[in-house]
Amino acid sequence: MTDILNAQQRQVLAAIPADRPFVMLNLLRYRVQADYGPHATGAACSGREAYQRYAREAARAVATVGGELQFVGTALPALIGPSDEVWEQVMLVRYPSVSAFQQMLGLPDYRAALRHRLAALSDSRLIPVLDGPG
To answer: Which residue from 36, 121, 123, 130 has the highest number of Cβ atoms inside 10 Å of its Cβ?
Structure first.
């Protein structure tokens, strides 16, 4: 798991109380053509198609650790924010705890599927969100 997250990302997760549920806000922008690198095998596909390959395994992994996909939607242009920051899809995934999220990152099938996520996305944001007022 530690090779997936850098020190700053681990620090963000460490600030969340260990047993507190949280939601991960996913902002996604797809590549027109998935980029599996110079040693890619198999037929070419779009970024969206590559992400669906990742999403199938990610959904199983989320469920395995007790998480739940709560929302998937098409992003519209921002009313407030940088005009060049355009997202195509938004997802909200609830995790029962940070340890559950970290457990998911360590699942071998999930780790194997990450290559599809990397090939699929031109940009993304993962933002942990806690319930209630800040």
So the answer is: 121
